[in-house]
Amino acid sequence: MAGTDTARTDTTRTDTTATRTVRSFCRVCTSVCGILVETAGDQVLRVRGDRDHPMSAGYTCPKGRALPDVHHHPDRLERPLMRAGDGFRPTTWEECLDDLGARVRAIIDEHGPSAVGIFFGSGVGMDAAGYKMAQSLHRAIGTPAKFSPLTIDGTAKVLISDLVGGTPALAGRPDYDTATFVLFVGSNPVVSHGHTVAMPNPIGTLKALRDRGEIWVVDPRQTETAKLATGHLAPRPGTDHAVLAYLVREVLRDGARRDVLENRCVDADTLAAAVEPFTLEHTAAICDVPADELTALCAAVRRAERVAVETGTGVTMSASANVTQWLSWALMIVTGSMNQPGGAWFHPGFGNRLENVQLPVSPAGGSFGPGPRSRPETHSFLGEWPCAVLADEIEAGNIRAVLNLGGHLVTAFPDTETLVPALRKLDVFATIEIIANETTALSTHVLPTKDQLERADITLWDNLMPRVATQYTPAVVEPVGDRRSTWWVLAELGRRLGHDLAATSGDAATDGARLAKVVPRDTFGEDLTTRQWAETDRQLPAPWVERHLDRLGGWRLAPRLLVDQLAGLTEPAPLVFVPRRQKRHLNSQFDFLGTQAEILIHPDDATPASVRDGEPVTVRTAHGEITGLARVDPAVRRGAVSIPHGHQYANVNRLTDKNDLDPITGMAHYSGVPVTIHPG
Fold first, then answer.
1. Which of 201, 210, 284, 404 is the most buried (most CB within 10 A)?
2. Per-residue pLDDT for 3 more than 50?
3. Mean pLDDT, residues 190-215
């Protein structure tokens, strides 16, 4: 079965063409909704939701339904390309990889492995066999210069798991099956479907939750999720931490689970001292929200038997990201909601099987290591360097080759005006991609790999998923042109660098054979490839989490790094930009759907600046500017300018500064940055 790349399909015949419907799952995001893909020959006709799927239950978003347009995109890449002067020439895989391998080998021989940077982009991140091979290639090369989206939008979540939970492996999420109180802070799952953890069928999930309990939202905009909520607070951008500090203070003074504090926590007194300044009056002033709204939220927390808190990029991209995430965990811990029904639960994974391993205990000061030579004030976290340092490492001559594995660096990395000239100076810039874009245009080698409909696959980030533990899909259509599997491309590159990473010919070189090596052998076989999904045993409380807490000595409620950062936060500027996701757009992948870069501005901010609804607006920071379409909307609070991510022509990275970094994680600030607005 390991070499099988097909599964059951339904076939009908029209007057002229045989059509097929193949059960698959969407890999646009970690919600991995079940889909049915209709094809006729080599044409992908339609994608619709799979009503039999145990989690998404027929739901798909516009991006998932647009997969046929991705597959048939007019700018899709079909053959390897090598730079020739100011353009490219098509070539063969053998010539392209021979040239790439020889040039990377020469760089390593002369300058050492650290002269090669590797970016693990979202493209390879949603390709199970490709990602595992990327890890193998990275280990074989031995470079410390590893980058990923972690330091673009999500470092705070893993940091708090590491500092408070004693391991980065604890990816908690609300227990949506039984929760009666969920607080969303800077998260809009109706549009973004969760951040680092998944919520397939979000509207159905939220409506079921609202029918049995309460939903509260903290966000400077009345989001699509807020419209479904019991209550909504719109604090000043960058002050979410104050709302949570106030809640933790009040619960610690009256209502905390004393048995949890005494038997499952350390440093509760230090936490109490850290949040003591956040009285009702002080918090209302900082956040610029009515005091009665804060007391109503606090009363709802007290009513709840368990509390679940979920954060999103509205939190994790701001200067207060770490302390907000910390205090969200603290609130769940002191209310006795961690690893409990109705609170937060921790998925053990399917391939990872965390319940069968002893998780290592992280140092109290965090899992940090040496950073790049050009930026000695930064460091690595969990073996990764901040994306913001790449341009400096290139300019310093420390990085001479970059292997870009499925990422659009121009619209993903901070400080575009500095990054692009640096990328042009590289000796080697090899990009794995499926559609041409501004990043491929800067590359020396363009490596076209299979899109998600062209390859067999399984879900990789199983411990980030909901109740479904893993899924399998066959390839839906044959690859176009000369596209190859990402794992094959990287294994072939590794071979040219002197590393035997995998067989690339013969029976062992199918996608199915590689997938069988991604998860334990007994979990990949006839049952999974026939049924196509498997569910996890959702234990609450999970014994493996409790065993880890026994070794840790209890939740670390007050890490010194976070206590100090909370005390050092300053007031936000009067007008700042904040991030936003859009239903029909994600990380520059769906420009063809026609979604514009609509910049949301409150009327009280637009009028003095002579900005009018429906007309161009220019947003400026001290570092750069972009122009988008103004939407004057009272649903966003005063002082917040809401800008969507991923647009190539209104690239929010042009507003960011590679030197404006979180001092702990090195992540660039993408929210709360002071701006001015002007008619475009």
1. 404
2. no
3. 89
Cα-based distances in Å from 641 to 25, 167, 317, 466: 35, 36, 15, 33
Per-residue pLDDT of 219-229, as tens digits, reads: 999 999 999 99
Q: What angle do CA 386, 391, 396 make, to 5 degrees?
A: 110
- Would 368 be classed as within a structural domain? no
Structure tokens at 622: 């001290």
Whether the upstream peptide bond of residue 54 has omega within 30° of 0, thus cis, is no
| Listed residue (5, 77, 2, 53) closest to 457, CA to CA | 5
- 52 to 36, 58, 467, 622: CA distances (angstroms): 10, 7, 15, 52
What does the pLDDT average to over 105-109? Answer: 98
CB 473 within 8 A of CB 25: yes
200 phi and psi, to 5 degrees? -65, 155
Q: What domain range includes position 213?
A: 169-352+540-568
Tell me the C-alpha distance between 474 and 356, whole Å: 29
Encoded tokens for 283: 């918090």
In a domain, 626, yes or no: yes
346 has which bridge partners? 172
Do 651 and 563 lie in one domain? The reply is no
Q: Is 547 helix (H, G, I), strand (E, B) or coil?
A: helix
Which pair of structure tokens corresponds to residue 454?
A: 């062209």
Distance CA 193, CA 181 (A): 18
Helix (H) or strand (E) holding 137, with range, is helix 128-141
Q: Which amino acid makes up residue 231?
A: G
Residue 11 pLDDT more than 70? no
Tell me, what CATH number does 653's domain have? Answer: 2.40.40.20
Which structure tokens are listed for 437? Answer: 């874009």
User: Which DSSP letter does residue 103 get?
Assistant: H
* Rounded (5°) CA angle 73-76-82: 165
Q: 3-class SS at 28?
A: coil
Higher pLDDT, residue 391 or 537: 391
Closest of 563, 22, 70 to residue 271, by C-alpha? 563
Query: What is the pLDDT confidence band of residue 525, given thresholds at 50, 70 and 90?
Result: low
User: Hey, what are 120's tokens?
Assistant: 């693990």
Tokens in use for 82?
Answer: 């090598």
Mean pLDDT of 501-513: 92
More reliable by pLDDT, 322 or 583 = 322
As a whole number of Å, the end-to-end CA separation of the chain is 59
Report the largest interatomic distance among the alpha carbons of the chain, rounded to a whole angstrom.
75
Contact 123, 433 (CB under 8 A): yes
- Residue 425 CB neighbours (<10 A): 13
Bridge partners, residue 174, by sequence: 344
